[in-house]
Design goal:
Strand order of the largest sheet: 1-4
Number of strands: 4
Distance between the termini: 18 Å
Strand content: under 5%
Number of helices: 6
Helix content: 25-40%
Order of helices and strands: EEEHHHHEHH
Largest sheet: 2 strands, antiparallel
Mean pLDDT: 85
Structural class: mainly alpha
Radius of gyration: 17 Å
Low-confidence stretches: 3-19, 31-35
Length: 223
């Protein structure tokens, strides 16, 4: 991982919440040992510990039947909820109808509007957010880059994207090529053994757990 670590910031980032790392006004859940298995359907997941970590920090709540559904593609509205909780659940905005297809009938509309207000989650040029569409891996890279990179820089940590090659299936002219490369340099995305990132694949729920856990480990370096 190509990271320039902070020198004088380690003791300057303590927030009011116990066990949280504050970066630019956002609190990130720190990596720590997860609790016992929370969901009944994750025993075979390669990201079981990351899922349990999410549950132990209140980021993932699963379904009422006790399942996490690790292989299910994560929808954009649930992704907004995960990122908001990961960021320490900051205050949510009032309803302003930012997107034409998001209303107060949508359970995660506040988190979606929060993402937009933070310049993390943008929609389409037609004014939609498409909350029930599955999130793709290239878009997820863009969201996490917007969430983390500037705030890490503000606290002395710079990710050198030029220190790693592009994934072989991400051309330089891809709209999110830099963000995907940043994910690799930061150690948040490792890709597949064949050197691919598969940007148009959907992010499943266990993959989201892995991304957020690695992001928390990165943020924890500036504590």
């Amino acid at each position: 991982m190509a990271v320039t670590p902070p020198i004088e910031r380690r003791n300057a980032l303590r927030g009011a919440a116990v066990g949280a790392t504050f970066l630019g006004g956002l609190a990130f859940a720190p990596p720590r040992p997860a609790s016992a298995t929370t969901f009944r359907d994750i025993s075979r997941s390669p990201f079981r510990s990351e899922i349990e970590w999410m549950a132990s920090h209140g980021i993932a709540r699963g379904w009422s039947d006790g399942t996490f559904r690790p292989l299910e593609p994560i929808k954009r509205d649930a992704m907004a909820a995960f990122i908001h909780r990961f960021a320490g659940a900051p205050a949510l905005p009032g309803y302003r109808r930012v997107f034409t297809d998001v209303s107060t009938r949508d359970v995660f509309w506040p988190e979606i509007e929060w993402m937009n207000a933070q310049n993390i989650g943008w929609g389409w040029v037609d004014g939609t957010f498409r909350p029930y569409h599955a999130i793709q891996r290239d878009a997820m890279a863009a969201f996490l880059h917007r969430l983390l990179d500037q705030r890490l820089r503000q606290h002395g940590m710079r990710i050198d994207v030029n220190s790693v090659p592009l994934f072989r299936d991400v051309p330089r002219n891809h709209v999110f090529a830099r963000e995907i490369r940043w994910m690799r340099a930061a150690g948040i995305a490792t890709g597949w053994s064949d050197g691919t990132y598969r940007p148009r694949f959907h992010v499943n729920r266990e993959g989201m757990a892995a991304f957020l856990h690695r992001a928390a480990q990165l943020a924890d370096q500036v504590r």
